[in-house]
Amino acid sequence: MSKSTPINQLRKEQDNSELVQNILNNIENQDPIMDMTQQQPQTQPQQQQQQQPQHPQHKQQQQEQYDQDYEEEFENDYDDSITQQRPQTMTDQIISDIKAPLLVVLLVFLTNFDMINQLLIKNIPRLAGHGGELNMIGVISKALLAGIIFYIVKRFLL
Prior knowledge:
Helix content: over 70%
Strand content: under 5%
Number of helices: 6
């Protein structure tokens, strides 16, 4: 079995090029509002009879409308890209960069209070060591709690 196309079939395809050209011409001449699914299949003689020469003025108006729509869309896209890519000032950049480190400083400061340690030991006695201070599990738990708070604040507020 050969997967090549015989020469006699290629000639038939060349004859179909006129039909294809007629279909393309009909599509160009149709009203753009018309739904393509509502069209009935037509034979080649019917298509040639229905094909009428396009008035140059009508074609020019369509082209102008298309150009105007394209320009408006391009301007809107350009305006959106300008507002999204506004260059940051040095002050804006510094404020943006310093938010996370300041949050870490605040969390470390708050978690080093003895009151926080006593609150954790009171609610979870297993975190207490022999001397009433936090054991290693308590310190790790407090660090994980600070990390979770950091993630939540950074994710949703910064």
